[in-house]
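can u pls check wat happens w/ copper (II) ion
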Amino acid sequence: MPDLTALQGTEASLASHDVDAVFIFILVIAAFFFVLTQGLLIYFAVRYRRKKGEPPAKTPYITGKQWLEVVWIVLPSLLLVGIFAYGVIIFVKMRTPIPGATDVQVTASQFQWSFKYPDGRTYSNELHLAVGKPVKLIMTSRDVIHGLFIPDYRQKQDVLPGRYTYLWLLPKRIGTFDIYCSQYCGTGHSLMRATLTVMGQNDYLAWEQSEKQKQQSAGASPKAKGKALFDSSGCGGCHSIDGSAKVGPTLKGVFGSTVTLADGKQVKADEEYLRESITEPNEQVVKGFQPIMPTFKSTLKDDDIAAIIAYIKTLK
Ligand SMILES: [Cu+2]
């Protein structure tokens, strides 16, 4: 049972201190034996070298010494068992469910993370948590194998299509932390990054309130619905909205522009062009890009597509 009261440590999360301790334990043992064996190697090489003019000496024939053999078999064996046991204890601790954890659904897809809270709010590449509040990530993938990795938390878990995997987090320090994908999942793998923002408990409640209000007031307009769908469908994983380079073409200013396709043809980006790019993305591929976008024909309804187009129109 983790101690939820002692939260003023410097470590980022419940697991980070423990994992570092195992690492340093192994490092110290390895360093000791490295210095011992290399030191003896150098010492013997100098001490027993053949001096100038000396005839080659006959190497002495040494027979067994039982107690010495027992020592160098038993001692390293005990050390290895110790390393194993220490590792297992920490591993089990990291895998033990933290009571009272809030569920957050995580969906990985090429190439973005989507985080869904119990009230339905969904964020693309952004995870907000309150310090000291345990969270259970329930993770799955829409396509290939990904891996959720938070280096500061020393926690990592593969995310697989067709099954759930879990990760229990207990943030201990306020701040922003990187989330990476740890499995090579395609062209945009290195761009598959998200931000973990850990806030004080009051700040978190205030943030949650304002987000809920935003969601309620935005409900009606197609633009807002389009923006929400854009985020939850993961469009932003491959398409920037600020003109910057990603795996797919930027959507800034795309509406009304003239697009050059891979076969050299030029087309005007109107509503129909955008609709076809969402439902049959590999029919008209933009010059300089790969035909790798999945279709959203079955996941987005006509209404949804219209809303996303309404949103794309606003990206000037
Ligand atoms: Cu990935």
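Residues 108, 146, 181, 183, 185, 189, 192 surround copper (II) ion (CB under 6 Å).
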